[in-house]
Every structure is written in C-alpha cells, then in structure tokens.
Amino acid sequence: MTPVPTPALNRRRFLAAGLGAAGLVLTGCAAAPGGSDRLRVAFAGGGSRESLDPHVLPLYVDQARAKACFDTLTGWAQDMTPQPRLAESWESDPAGLRWRVVLRAARFHDGRELTAADVLYSLRRITDEATSAIAAALFRDLDLTASRERGPRELELVLRRPNLLFPLAWGAPGTEIVPQGTTAFDAPVGTGPFRLTSFTPGGPALYTAFDGHWDGAPAVRELEFLPVDDEQARIGALLSGQVAYAHDLTPAGAARLDGDARVAALAAPAAAHQFLVLRVDRPPFDDARLREAVRLGIDRDELVRIALLGRGRPGNDMFGQGLRYYPELPQVTRDVERARALVTEAGARGLAVELQTSGADPNFDAATAVAARQLGEIGLRVTPRALPSENYFKAIRSQGVFSQNSTGSLPIPDYIGRRMLTSTPTYDFTGYRNPEIDRLYYAATGTADETVRTDAFRRILELLRAGSGGLVWGVRDWNVGVADGVSGIEAARPNTFAWANFARARLG
Fold first, then answer.
1. Given this model, what pLDDT does residue 9 score?
2. Rounded to whole angstroms, what are the CA distances from 144 to 74, 85, 125?
C-alpha cells in the first residue's frame, strides 16, 4: 500500500520561515572525518502517524528512517531479486521447507554482536498480531516453534508449506532486524549505517554516522530528515539549497527541474503503478458487464500523456510491468462502441457513479478528471469525491466502490502473497476472491522448476486482469530531486535496497 502523507509543514510556512523555524540553521558543508558534514533530505511527513518502529512503517519517511537505522536479512535489487545483507548466505532443503541462514559479522549501535537469537526474536515480533507488522503476511507459513538457532550466527527457519522463494520475504519493508528483547523504539538500536541522535514526532529526525557499520561507515557524518508535506515546498527548498534531496516528485515536479543546473531529477522507469479500482462484490461493479465497460472505456495512452505528462507508459491491467514473471499479453486498448454497448446491455446508461480520490497521491487529481471525461463518453456519469488523505486507503478498503490507488514496486510473488490470496485480504481493495489463485501461488512458490513457476504466475495475473477489478492504467517513473554536486544516490524503484538509501551519499 502506498503510504499516506498528512500535512507536516505547508509551503508558505516553510518558505517564509526557512529551516531556522525548526531550530535548524544552514551553515554550509564543512568537511569532517570520513565525509561531508550533514545531508538534509525532505520527505512528506505524517505528524502523529509517524513511527520509529521498523516493523510498522506506515509512511515512506518511516521506511527511509528505518533503512538508515536498521538492516534486513536481504535487500531487493532493481530486478526485485534478493541480495545478501545481514544474511551472508542461505540454502534450503530440496523441498524448500527448511532454510539454513548464516549471518555476517555485524554489531548493533550499542556494541552488541548480531546473533541468530536477534533474528528469531525479530521474526516473532513481526508475526505477532499485536505488532500489526506490515510484512506479517509474508511469514504466515513460518513455524517459529520448530525454527531454531544452530549457533551464534547460524539459524534454521522451518516452514509449514514449501516456499523456494522465501528469501524474497526477508528483504521486504518492515522486516528489519532488532535486538532481542526490544519492546520500545523511542531510542531505537539497529545495525544500520546511521544511529538516531534526536527525533521530534512530526518534526526533524537527526541521525549520526555509525562508523562500526559492517558495510563501512557512511560518507556523510549526519543525516537529517525534514518533514515537508507540500511538493512545491520540497522543490523550493531543493532549488534554494536548504535541502540536498527532495523525495517523491510528481511528473510536473520533475519537469520543473529539467534544464536547471542547480539540481537533477532522478527517474526510475516503470516504478509505480496507477490503478482504477472497481469493487467486484458491491453494486454496480458486481456486474461483469460494467467492469468490462470501464476497462474498454478508458484511454490509457491519454491518461499517461495528460496525467503523467508522458513520464510513464500505459498499463495493461496487471501489476509488475518490467519485473520478473510479468507476462507479455496483448495490450488492452480503448473500444468506445463496445463499452457503450455493454453499459446499455447492463441497463446503466446515465448511471451516476462516484470516483473516490484524495491528495494521498498527487497524480490522482489529473487522472480523475481525464477518467471521468472518458467514461462519460460511454454513458456513465462519473462524479469525483475527495476523501481525507490521512485515512484514504483504509476508507476505500472498507467502503470503496470506485476509487484510485497506486503502489510502488514489489516482487510479483510478494504482491500476490500480500494482497490477492483468500487467506490474506488485508491489502485487497477489490473484494475479488478466487481459490485458484491460492492453488497456483503455492504451486509456484513450492517448485524449483522455473518454467512451471513462470507459467503459474502468468496464469495468476491473467485471472486478476480478467476478474479482479484492479485496472492498471499506467506505470509511472519514480522521481526524486537531488542537488548538483550530490553523488551516491541512485534512481531506484521504491522498496528496493537502493531506494531512499543515503549510506553512500556524498555532498559537494
């Protein structure tokens, strides 16, 4: 689920008062041992909803702070395959039921050595319902009673069901490893490249380089997260030199940076999916004819051209474009005549339908206007209804009928395992259930035959495209802004290891 920002510092206050209003005075970037002084990064904030608990992470800024302070067993590469992090190596039995994991030598910020007991404790906390961990669904089949330590830096993870893709789960957001016995995170201790110095809920968070990091000390001595909810304020702060990094820019925001020598927009292609979401278990879209009418009635090329300013590509009503296991199927194209006929056949000519939207994703507004006009041309009267950003995604799960959604990159097995199985509907927005998807998913994760696995995931995505009501109309670039002279920050897909990772950033 795309995290939902809430206002933290509006544009007028930010630009008028500058960072000094928060007690932060820019003094230049004097050199310090091991790198430059302080890297300031601007993210949309979340006020009281922000969390330092690395297993909860409701917002993008929470995920980025967790990445600074903690490590995960694996990290996702740009192709969404797992790469070693705290797990130095791993292997499974032929069935994929028992996994032997060897940890690298690493220390927590307080000097304690990382042990297998810390990993098992972290996994127990993630799977504890009381934690409300965002990654809990990925460990539904982990048997923590049977799992055990094999030595100080070696453990065995036992599954109730075969899963030869299990290491993917270890790199998901919300799987950070914490010290055994940790119950509070007001002063979090991790093994990450930075350690927390100070934090004000809804305000700045300051981190200091951890010179004992197993992967080497960061190139900057300090990392400061600043809450700037308004995108124009983030861009203004970047252009004026008040911050060196501005997170999550719309296509219009990225275009504003084009040609400006002071800054650069880094774009990760095909990194975020834009959806129109139809509830298939509620009127009027429990009628398959109306779902098909909407699917054929929208013009994806026009939506990409207008709503995304061409900084993306048309979607094909399936998640995962450009990723492993994504099938190449004929592109869905607009068919106005067929869409009108379906609306008429369903007795829905002139039917009034609300399209729920919000400022939770700044791309929603432009897409709403275009989609409403397009669907008006097939006989539906679409009226936008704005919902509050702070609980938008929760609202459309519980009471949505026709809404917008967006999500960053995830491995396709992760996306299906979290959202589309009948046993884990936590993040489902469409109400679609199909036991065949569960069967195919477990067949895919339980086989070592890559041909069989690829075919199973292809069939799952075909079923979802045909029946789920989740219409991927576009796959957009993911844009961030970086000041000239800043290096070591990659154009990376959301949720990957390199995304919002400042451990190798350098100033000047």
1. 34
2. 19, 22, 11
For 377-411, the pLDDT digits (tens) are 999 999 999 999 888 988 998 889 999 999 999 99
Contacts of 394 (CB under 8 A, 6+ apart): none
Q: What does R_g of the chain's alpha carbons equal in angstroms? A: 23
Selection from 214, 253, 278, 269 nearest residue 363 by Cα: 253
Q: Are 155 and 102 in contact (CB under 8 A)?
A: no
Question: Contact at 8 Å (CB) between 316 and 332?
Answer: yes
- DSSP letter, residue 223: E
Q: How far apart are CA 230 and CA 470, in angstroms?
A: 29
Q: What is the pLDDT of residue 426?
A: 62
CA distances from 65 to 61, 176, 284 (A): 6, 11, 42
Collapsed DSSP state (helix, strand, coil) of residue 65: helix
The pLDDT of residue 334: 98
What domains, with CATH codes, occur in the chain? 11-70+192-244 (3.40.190.10), 74-169 (3.90.76.10), 269-477 (3.10.105.10)
CB 115 within 8 A of CB 154: no
**Cβ burial, residue 139 (10 Å; 0-12/13-18/19+):** buried
Calculate mean pLDDT across residues 432-457.
96
Q: Three-state DSSP class for 11?
A: helix
